[in-house]
TrEMBL record, chain A:
Gene3D superfamilies: Periplasmic binding protein-like II (3.40.190.10). This is ABC transporter substrate-binding protein. The keyword Signal applies. It holds the Pfam family SBP_bac_1. PANTHER family: ARABINOSE-BINDING PROTEIN-RELATED, POLYGALACTURONAN_RHAMNOGALACTURONAN-BINDING PROTEIN YTCQ. Keywords: Cell membrane, Lipoprotein, Membrane, Palmitate, Signal.
TrEMBL record, chain B:
PROSITE patterns: ABC_TM1 (PS50928). Belongs to the binding-protein-dependent transport system permease family. Residues 85-296 form the ABC transmembrane type-1 domain. This is Sugar ABC transporter permease. It is a multi-pass membrane protein. It comes from Deinococcus aquiradiocola.
Length: 398, 307
């Protein structure tokens, strides 16, 4: 009896000591929505006084994360994009597989499938948290002045560009000095004209860029011919500011450009429509902008699971998405931003698809080929280069 | 750990060889920290890189295999890598020639008897202490905004747009910024060389009635031949490794028209997940740099002996 009490006091004191020293979880994130993360974490710590969340916001996020992973010191949770970097880490076995986790069932299947196809298997190495979207941004007043409706088909878009040119306006701003800008441009068209199986087929040698992307290249070249005078000399910040000040009618970008436009000109009246890539019904590109991945080798799996569950409650997810102004990935939600009103029906009807580029192998540098093509107008050279480099990159990595 | 090497030490019964050994130990201990630092932060990672270059390592994870010389073979079939080597060599040769010509002219000017000589020397040295990246970003802005306005004002078509956006002209912008920044260091080296020339040589030449060009050709240039060698070698080595200017000005674009080898190694290795492949490229590039530097030194040294 005496020994029992002794044992129980010992056990109690052990419990007490572990409770007083809170478990620390490290949460790694780029520079998106930092203040909102802080709010959510302080709420979480109030509910769970035995857990402390350390928010780390490193400069040059991907490079720092890579060095941490190389040293086998992967942060407990990482919030990052569903991009080629994610593909590399996931294939390297760094992240936990959430495929059979209940949290995944809250997410629209399309985003879960995106993460699966990025890695090329059944595993889901993160929980999609916010999405981004690409579309055609336009200056509301300028379009009204031209007497044109926001275009929903490719021919209407070209007609609008022609009309703007005839009226002495700059129809379109393109910022090709930054090569990456060609990717959203390509994605918005390719998602509607290239089969979703393209990447797998190209790897198997059953199709080529020359066959599948010829039409995409034609459209990119045709649209680009309506741009301002020196698109290759214009960088993304310069071009965004120029469009915000009303120097052109149209701008091709993702929703991440909206805050930049408003920063350059708080009074800018702009809106976005689904990109008019074809004359049929157009699909909207929507990729995973942020996903929550957790380290496969974390020392605190229970605490990490608690925090993941907390962040993905509908209320908290919506709080975060409103703060960063991003379309939600959770089932039953549509974009709430008024400027994205025209995108709502695409989301509601599920007429959305991931960016084709996310399935390209890392190291392809597709953007450099498109940038060169829009400069020298040599479509064949770009498509052949993409085909050859795709094969080379695969040879190097297997 | 002081070594006394005067007579009192010897009379204290220390024999000469033992004393030398004590001295040797002292020098060894003085050199050791630098050797250790160099080994830990330079030699060891370099050897690691060489080992990785024979694998298909991604940069993280533990699932990689030994692939032998495959990476090396593939570099020679990689059009992008070959283009980067071509660009780097053309860029380096041109910039080396330009920077040495510019630096020598300015150094001779700063070495002559002019007012505000020291102030001017300080001003000309300024670019050297600025960060290459900052300078690059400033020039990036100038090429995008100021130069086109001037070009349009003068009615020069090729200058009225951003030259960094044209694959046939972008290299000019990079050469300009690189030379502007690098000249400062070479000016200092040439100034040091010019100050070693005895003045009576020039006096003798004056008496013989030599003109300025003859004096330069027959006295100045031969006398600073050693400095010319070191300037050529250092400039070439630095320009072959050009990186920061490209990051700040073009990011290798438009297309891949201004990709240098260092930039490609960084981009492919860290962004493109080709860690092992680009390690092989780095090893190859290291060998190329050594060969170029050795050839330069041998060729230019022979010139020095003749002079």
């Amino acid at each position: 009896m005496k020994r029992m009490t002794l044992l129980s006091t010992l056990a109690l004191s052990l419990l007490a000591s572990s409770a007083s020293a809170a478990t620390e979880i490290e949460f790694f994130v780029g520079n998106k929505g930092v203040d909102t993360w802080k709010q959510l974490f302080s709420q979480f710590e109030k509910q769970n006084p035995d857990i402390k969340v350390n928010l780390v916001v490193p400069p040059d996020f991907v490079a720092v994360l890579k060095t941490r992973i190389v040293k086998n010191k992967t942060p407990d949770i990482v919030a990052m994009g569903g991009d080629t970097n994610f593909k590399g880490f996931a294939e390297g076995g760094v992240f936990k597989d959430y495929a059979s986790d209940a949290l995944i069932r809250k997410v629209k299947p399309i985003y879960v499938q995106q993460l699966q196809s990025i890695v090329g298997g059944k595993e889901v190495y993160g929980i999609p948290y916010t999405a981004n979207t690409i579309g055609l941004i336009y200056n509301v007043d300028k379009l009204k002045a031209l007497g044109v409706q926001p275009p929903t088909t490719y021919s209407a878009f070209i007609a609008a560009l022609k009309k703007a040119k005839a009226a002495g306006q700059t129809p379109l701003t393109l910022t090709l000095k930054d090569a990456w800008v060609t990717l959203p441009f390509m994605n918005a068209i390719a998602v509607n004209t290239v089969p979703a199986t393209f990447a797998a087929q190209e790897t198997a040698g059953k199709t080529t860029f020359q066959k599948a992307y010829s039409g995409v290249a034609d459209k990119m070249l045709e649209i680009a011919s309506y741009s301002q005078a020196d698109p290759l000399g214009t960088s993304y910040p310069d071009g965004t500011a120029s469009f915000a000040r009303g120097n052109s009618v149209f701008y091709i970008q993702g929703d991440w450009a909206l805050p930049d436009i408003l920063a350059a000109n708080p009074g800018a009246k702009v809106a976005m429509v689904p990109f008019p890539a074809t004359d049929a019904r157009n699909k909207v590109v929507s990729s995973v902008d942020l996903l929550l991945a957790s380290s496969a080798s974390t020392r605190h799996p229970a605490e990490v699971a608690k925090l993941m569950a907390f962040l993905t409650t509908p209320q908290n997810a919506v709080t975060f998405q409103k703060a960063v102004n991003a379309p939600s990935v959770q089932i039953g939600t549509v974009p709430t931003d008024a400027r994205l009103a025209a995108m709502k029906s695409s989301y509601a009807s599920g007429n959305i698809e991931g960016a084709p580029f996310n399935l390209f192998p890392p190291g392809l540098s597709a953007e450099t080929f498109w940038q060169a093509m829009l400069q020298d107008k040599n479509k064949q050279k770009a498509l052949q280069g993409l085909d050859k480099t795709w094969a080379d990159v695969l040879k190097r990595s297997n | 750990m002081s070594v006394l090497s005067d007579d009192r030490q010897v009379s204290a019964g220390l024999t000469a060889p033992r004393k030398r050994r004590r001295q040797d130990l002292t020098f060894l201990f003085m050199a050791l920290p630098a050797v250790i630092l160099f080994f830990v932060f330079h030699t060891y990672p370099a050897v690691q890189g060489i080992l990785y270059s024979f694998t298909n390592f991604k940069g993280f994870g533990n699932n990689y295999d030994f692939v032998g010389l495959r990476n090396y073979v593939q570099i020679f079939q990689d059009e992008r890598a070959m283009a980067a080597y071509r660009f780097t060599f053309l860029f380096a040769i041109l910039s080396t020639v330009l920077v040495n010509a510019v630096a020598l002219v300015i150094a001779i000017g700063l070495n002559s008897n002019i007012r505000f000589r020291n102030t001017l020397r300080a001003i000309y040295f300024l670019p050297n202490i600025l960060s290459v990246l900052i300078v690059g970003f400033i020039f990036n802005y100038l090429f995008a905004n100021l130069v086109p306005k001037i070009g349009a004002g003068l009615g020069i078509a090729s200058l009225s747009k951003n030259i960094l956006g044209d694959p046939h002209l972008a290299w000019i912008g990079i050469v300009f910024v690189a030379v502007w920044q690098a000249a400062a260091f070479n000016i200092i080296l040439y100034l040091a060389g010019l100050q070693t020339i005895p003045y009576d040589l020039y006096e003798a030449a004056d008496i013989d009635g030599a003109g300025p060009w003859q004096k330069f050709r027959n006295i100045t240039f031969p006398m600073i031949a050693a400095f010319f060698t070191i300037n050529m070698v250092l400039a070439m080595k630095a320009f072959l490794q050009v990186f920061d200017q490209i990051v700040a000005l073009t990011g290798g674009g438009p297309g891949t028209s201004t990709e240098s080898v260092s930039f490609l190694i960084y981009k492919g290795g860290f962004d493109g997940g080709q860690f092992a492949y680009q390690s092989a490229n780095a090893v190859l590039f290291f060998i190329v740099l050594v060969v170029v530097s050795l050839l330069q030194t041998r060729f230019l040294h022979r010139r020095e002996v003749e002079a």
